[in-house]
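One-letter codes give the sequence; the fold follows as tokens. Both lines appear below.
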Amino acid sequence: MSNLSVEGKVKRIHDEQVISDRFKKREFVIETEEQYPQVLMFQLVQDKTNLVDQFSTGDKVEVFFNLRGREWQKDPSAEVKVFNTLDAWRIQKVEAMQPTDMPNAEPVAPASPEDDLPF
């Protein structure tokens, strides 16, 4: 699944973690602003770990992500576990809608009878 997005406020931004010489990740958490708020953890990987640098706790953001899942089994006799990951690939700040004043509309004069002629 790809091209999913969700809006929420940044709750936490974690430090970058170097897992191996070929893999690094950084996690961050947002909380949605719906009737039943959801707390979601996303991960940024490789060259995307710095995407969250420009944001702070409390910022309202939209996160674009891919949903990933994988199975893991400790050994052949162990239960198979499933892990899901929200892999963020873009984050943008959501600006609050500012009410704008409607400009004063000029009254429009009624059309003259000549304006209705077909030629």
